[in-house]
Structure of DNA-directed RNA polymerase subunit Rpo10:
Amino acid sequence: MMVPVRCFTCGKVIAEKYEEYLARVNKKEDPEKVMNELGIEKYCCRRTIFSHVDLIDEIMKYNV
C-alpha cells in the first residue's frame, strides 16, 4: 500500500522521507546510514520505514 504518513507508534511524519530513502537504498547505500542522515532516529520510525512493502502496483491490476 502507500507509505504511512506518520509513524504508527510516535506519530512523527515519515512519509516525506520515504522517497529519498528508497532512492538511496536502491543505489546500494547502507540503510542504517541513510536513516541516520535523514533524521529517522527512533526505532519505531525505522521499523515503519524499513518494513514497508509497496503493493500499490500489484493492487492496481485488479478492477472492482
Remarks:
- The chain has one domain: 15-59.
